[in-house]
Amino acid sequence: xxxxxxxxxxxxxxxxxxxxxxxxxxxxxxxxxxxxxxxxxxxxxxxxxxxxxxxxxxxxxxxxxxxxxxxxxxxxxxxxxxxxxxxxxxxxxxxxxxxxxxxxxxxxxxxxxxxxxxxxxxxxxxxxxxxxxxxxxxxxxxxxxxxxxxxxxxxxxxxxxxxxxxxxxxxxxxxxxxxxxxxxxxxxxxxxxxxxxxxxxxxxxxxxxxxxxxxxxxxxxxxxxxxxxxxxxxxxxxxxxxxxxxxxxxxxxxxxxxxxxxxxxxxxxxxxxxxxxxxxxxxxxxxxxxxxxxxxxxxxxxxxxxxxxxxxxxxxxxxxxxxxxxxxxxxxxxxxxxxxxxxxxxxxxx
Length: 350
Known about the structure:
CATH class of the largest domain: Alpha Beta
Strand order of the largest sheet: 6-7-8-3-9-10
Largest sheet: 6 strands, mixed
Oligomer: single chain
Number of helices: 13
Number of strands: 14
Structural class: alpha/beta
Strand content: 25-35%
Shape: elongated
CATH topology of the largest domain: Rossmann fold
């Protein structure tokens, strides 16, 4: 008689074959949970006559809020469409939550909530009706879709307009409906392409607060050319220009790197000629500029040489001369300064 344990796929002293497969599936799931949320390597997208994305590589970890910056035509939207499996790449690889965007597009889409720039909505549908429709399209069961629609209506501040026709809503509320749509299936990754475009200042502040709230539970990739949005919501930034990544770092680290050659500014009660004479020949100083201010005060701008921090030097020289100083600071760079510095002379009209 044949050994029944072998007939059923159980080896002596071992586990069933299906249990081995289950173990492999568990290992695969763990790898997906511990892998970065987004992995892009040498990604390229070419169209006839131009290259929209030119061999970019970057990684975004789980739980990060990353700003995707660049002027119009930089390749931001193209990259997002590729990551969302809406557009094939010419070459390169991209993975989202451990799944290949080209070979496993269905798995990728289940894990992404994508709000595109034009925010396409069914304007003739009511808000709750539309969100239920979208939840069902995304694979949620009848009961679960109802629970999630109630949750995102509350989360996005849409409860009071849930029975209104979308086409009758303001631009700000339509953006909220788009965000609710992106969130309804509880995705791991939220991709927002220009979420505040066309909004007034009050609506922008409201959407910005919502994005900050999303960051507490999701990985967020925010694509925009409004630099203040990134400064207020993102911990890290990718700067894209002409299809290539010019910088990828935390905003404060980018500022620190650019500030290595930042000027030292002082307001000093002293004769302008004397100020120039004291500082212009110092080996640590590249250049000196003096401008008149109110009363006897001059605005002294000292440009350091080779990235040196000359604040202590400036303070010591002013004190040695017995002059009065009411301010001493090192110039700080905003994200806009950084962006202009990196793309100076490279911006093209599209």
